[in-house]
Amino acid sequence: MKWWGETLGRGASAQLSRVARMRRALLLLAAAACTAAALLYWRQQSDDRAHRPLHALYAGVEPQWSWVCRNLRCERLLASETSTLQSLPTCNMLCDSTQLWPQPTGPVSLATAVQPVRADGFKLQIIASPSRDVSDHLSEAFELMREDMRALERSAGDHRPADYGAPRDVHVRVAINGSADPRMRLDTDESYKLTLRPSRKTLVADITAHSFCGARHGFETLSQIVWLDPYAGSLLILEAATVVDAPRFSYRGLLLDTARNFFPTDEILRTIDAMAACKLNTFHWHVSDSQSFPLRLDSAPQLAQHGAYGPGAVYSPDDVRAVVRHAKLRGVRVLLEVDAPAHVGRAWGWGPSAGLGHLAHCIELEPWSAYCGEPPCGQLNPRNPNVYELLQRIYAEIIQLTEVDDLFHLGGDEVSERCWAQHFNDTDPMELWLEFTRRALHALELANGGRAPELVLLWSSRLTRSPYLERLDSRHLGVQVWGSSRWPESRAVLDAGFRAVLSHVDAWYLDCGFGSWRDSSDGHCGPYRSWQQVYEHRPWAEEAGAGWRVQGGAACQWSEQLAAGGLHARVWPRAAALAERLWADRAEAAAPDVYLRLDTQRARLLARGVRAAPLWPRWCSHNPHACL
Length: 628
Description:
Blueprint: H1 2-47, E1 65-70, E2 73-78, H2 88-94, E3 108-110, E4 114-128, H3 132-155, E5 168-176, E6 192-199, E7 202-209, H4 212-224, E8 226-229, E9 234-238, E10 241-245, E11 251-257, H5 265-277, E12 282-286, H6 302-307, H7 317-328, E13 333-337, E14 360-361, E15 379-380, H8 385-402, E16 407-411, H9 417-423, H10 429-447, E17 455-459, E18 477-481, H11 488-495, E19 499-502, H12 505-508, H13 531-536, H14 539-542, E20 549-557, H15 567-571, H16 574-583, H17 592-607, H18 618-622
Parallel strand pairs: 4-5, 5-7, 11-12, 11-20, 12-13, 16-17, 17-18, 18-19, 19-20
Antiparallel strand pairs: 1-2, 3-10, 4-9, 6-7, 6-10, 8-9, 14-15
């Protein structure tokens, strides 16, 4: 009985062992099946990440706010009160507005699906280029775009990105069929077409253009559909896009006066960065005036020696070359203006000691109010031939430094007839002014290899009114009209067939509204011009005449009450408003969509180191439609 009992016990134990092994096998099979199912589900979800609600993608963050797109607008909610977690930049990009600045002029189609990307995942392929010079500029401009994206990535800090899956590479293919000259010129075709589409595990962006500048604008638009999601710590890009675009006006400028107060070169470079971000194309550098001559020229070094504020307030030829190269890679030309015959000062007072006679008269003459608009006074001697020989050398060096030979600015405003009448009482001062303009234009022709630039600009003045306007050569001369848009001179210049660049003081002078530095009055040009006033100014649409030749416009930042450190907040985002007016020129006023897109553009400028002024309280950025 004992043996039988032991045998029975062994059999039962073996049976139990087999059951246990079967249970373990079943458990392992079940675990494997669950793992496989989970893996399949995860893979399906990963493949569809671009089409899922973004709140499902964030990880490891504790934001205070979330934004939800409702009724084509982003609404702010407490993150603790909603299951949807979405940042404001991402909501803005995926809700109703295009968020592009300036607004394109052709058809636009933007996807609402996104993909994660990295700056170093953008690769350039030049499909077609008309010259090696254009190809080199494309490569450098593309690298500038990637560096802007790297700066966004660095701004994410140590934030741990959410799991979006592997970032997509973006293959950027560029084809240019047109100009072999990478410079911005009067006849440059700035149009471009951008298409972005998914292709297997990558994205393909095709940019076609007729010039380097057009392709560069395509890079700029491509960069605007890439943004940093602050909750995810990752760059995102729209999955697909089509943009067809071209500017309304060929001249889209910003003037900076560096003579009244000096601006370091790095502030000029940053200003050009902001211009490029807004597709402005002409940096009008008003480098000299009666107060100072900060430009050191090899052709006339005495001007800076006698006219600069000091050795730390001088632009060398190498400084100018650096500004020009910086601008050229960003589709911006540098229009360097040495004003004449008025707006000259002690810089021109060395003529007698050099055996050249008096190069200028009325230098720092008192009472200044009788001879100029602000102290100190001074204007060139129109009867001294050495003046024109000196101007020829200056003009030749300017053309060589800037590489701009089809466009030039002679200055030419606010001549004091009284000054010249005191020195040349045998001649009508207006006749002297006409004589000076003709001889200066001839000096320019000689400096430019024997031919006048295609367009030579003068400031509007008494000389550009009847009966003197009709005696000027409209084939080469154009007028930068700075007076009030309601002044008769604005229309007279255009009616007479002259090409015009508009800089109306009552809309596009950015120095207005800060009072007078001389007294307690409101200043010479009235109240502050808001970005809305800049944006809504469309003088060509009010009563356009047949045959008007409006080349475009420019905002002007004069610097009597501005110096280093305050430039960017004074100019931006108001100059960005001008940029969209001159690029797209849509008829609508500053509608809610414009506020929203300009606020987004200001954020882009801040990311590029431009300290643009805010449009409104930050609460309005969070709740834009509640502020409009």
